[in-house]
Amino acid sequence: MIRIGRQSPALSTWAVRSNRSRRLWLLATIVLLAGLCATSVAVGTRQVVWSDVLSALGGRVESIEEAAVAVRIPRTLLALLAGAALGLAGAVMQGVTRNPLADPGILGVNMGASLAVVIGVAWFDIASAYAYIGVAIFGAGSAAVFVYVIGSLGRGGPTPLKLALAGAATSVAFSSLVIAVVLPRGDIAGGIRSWQVGGVGGATFDRLWPVLPFLLMGFAVSLFSARKLNSLALGDELAAGLGERVALARGTAAFGAVLLCGATTAVCGPIAFVGLVVPHLCRLLAGVDHRWLLPFSALGGACLLMAADVVGRIVVRPSELDVGIVTALVGAPFFIWIVRRQRVREL
Questions:
Q1: What residues contact residue 118 under an 8 Å CB cut-off, 6+ apart?
Q2: Is the N end or the C end of the chain the one with fewer CB atoms within 10 Å?
Q3: How far is CA 271 from CA 58, 199, 214, 243, 296, in A?
Q4: C-alpha angle 334/337/339, rounded to 5°?
């Protein structure tokens, strides 16, 4: 018999092996991300050799090839940050709602940020980067609250299926409103349509610096919420019995996810399915402990978005396919598989 307060040798051995396996997978993910970063810098519509890459990394832009690599460096950094933000936000949202279908795109958060930015541009002529980011975060937060309230109505409260349906309906409605706002404004229609697809092309360091503090704050708040999400996974009553302030824990974690979604949408446009696919794959490697799952999801999201960007540059050469299209092609079948495989109740 195992005494209370002591850990059996079998459990201790299992825990050591589990943590060792997680560390190995974490190292493998970091190595994969490093390889994808190198590939993203080296691969594009124009062929370059590694000497051009090294020269561009050293600050030289004397040749066309070196200039091409110099353009890819901020694009690679943006893909890394945006993918990490969306992957982490998806894992946090799934933990907050205990919903296996939770995703910034499916729950309407990205489209809420998109609608807010479009209204700001069309009606209030916002132009500064900080205005874009602030409006996008406000729109993302408002959409998250709206979907949660709608999904909470009726018997049973905010079940995963009701939240997914409310989010899907909200996304469609917001998408229609975006079109309605843009149609009378032919002067901004082209730019808005291109931005709405979602992509990391055209990234510059001038676009990255304003959004960086918001992303860092979102990363910090979300990662800090790992233990709280572990408590929430036990159920609200048990979490409260363990001394957790459930409403504060859920609100704090959701705030971090909203920051990440809003800031990413402001600079990249709405990119769907990264926050859905990545956490499910990372649970196979890290388990359900959010102290491991959240870092894995951030790294996995960066890998997925960077790989999608590289694929988008290759498949339609000499043109490019925006990363939002590639993630949709990957994520839509995955979403259908999740719906068919699970009974969509709780994690």
A1: 178, 181, 182, 192
A2: N
A3: 32, 7, 18, 37, 19
A4: 110
CB 80 within 8 A of CB 274: no
Distance CA 331, CA 241 (A): 38
Q: Which of 49, 79, 59, 47 is nearest to 201 (CA)?
A: 79
Kindly calculate the radius of gyration of the chain based on its CA atoms and give it in whole angstroms: 21
Short-list 45, 37, 27, CA closest to 316: 45
Terminal CA-CA length for the chain: 31
Which residue type does 103 have? D
pLDDT tens-digit series, residues 328-340: 888 778 777 766 6
Please indicate whether residue 19 or residue 269 has the higher confidence score (pLDDT). 269
194 burial level (CB within 10 Å; 0-12, 13-18, 19+) = middle
> What is the band of 127 on the pLDDT scale with cuts at 50, 70, 90?
confident
| pLDDT at residue 132, rounded to an integer | 92
- Look up the CATH architecture of domain 74-341: Orthogonal Bundle (1.10)
Answer whether the bond into residue 210 is a cis peptide, omega within 30°.
no
pLDDT at 342: 56
Burial class of residue 34 in the structure, from the number of CB atoms within 10 Å of its CB (0-12 exposed, 13-18 middle, 19+ buried): exposed
Other C-beta atoms lying within 10 Å of the C-beta of residue 25: 17
Binned at pLDDT 50, 70 and 90, residue 177 comes out as very high
Tokens representing residue 39 in the block: 């590939």
- Check residue 302 and report its DSSP letter: H
Query: Is 295 a residue whose pLDDT tops 70?
Result: yes
Do 135 and 193 contact (CB within 8 A), yes or no?
no
Selection from 219, 188, 210 nearest residue 136 by Cα: 210
Structure tokens at 33: 């991300």
How does pLDDT run across 62-71, given as a tens digit for each residue? 677 777 778 8
The residue with greater pLDDT, 93 or 8, is: 93
One-letter amino acid of 178: V
The crossing angle, in degrees rounded to 10, of helices 129-152 and 160-182 is 140
